[in-house]
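hey can u check if this looks right to u? its 281 residues, i copy pasted from the old doc so theres a chance i mangled smth
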Amino acid sequence: MTILETLKLATEYLEKYNIENARLNAELLLSDILKCKRLELYTSFDKPLNENELQKYREFLKRRAKGEPLQYITGKANFFGLEFIVTPDVLIPRPETELLVEEIINSLDKNISMKILDVCSGSGNIGITLAKNFPASFVYCLDVSEKAIEIGNLNAKNLNVENISFQLIDILNQIPDEKDFDVIVSNPPYISFEKKDKLQREVRLYEPHTALFVDDELKFYRRIIELTDSLLNEKGKLFFEIDDELVDSISQLMKEKNFKSIKVKKDYSGLNRIISGEKSK
């Protein structure tokens, strides 16, 4: 069976299970198996697939048809032009989070040395991307999951990033030893358990719940903002990814801690997604 014939059948199979962008999914899964770029499939339509390739492809398609995210099947996800290893132990990096990183890059001087703290670092996508873009700075990443710390370290090694460290810390109950940060960034859990059933099945069934859900949507924001007293330098910058519905509450928490120059940025859907501010006396 040729690549073209296989893709046609695979697309029809995924469509039957209501997988969005079925053709794109079929192509990405096959290109992963063949270790080629997706566009290279188009120049090899007449190439036949061997039985091992077909068998592995069938397994991938079955997993995708059940709703398992494509990134967990291939074990990788793209973020800000970089390829990250991802497993069900960490969240899949989102395009909206690229806006958070972009906002930080556009707000700060790449040439000065800074201490940057990434709270709830997951796969390390935020911290590693910042370390890449701020080579004179050092990024400290914190997460409560041992598996996430392992994956973060592995991603840093694979992407040749040395100005970064990962530490196992429960930020809700512990305080980092390191202090005097110039920047704190976080994309913490902020979805209430009550909203769980409204999420896509890919997210609800496969992504780590500890990285998604909380009993109090403001829990992490409140804690991190409180810790800025001891962790963040004067005139230091704080950046959060947020839920649109939380913008007023988080803004108020920041104002109560004397943050100024508070800015809110919308995502691609026009929803409030990024909030930032500067610490003052």
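The chain has a mean pLDDT of 96.
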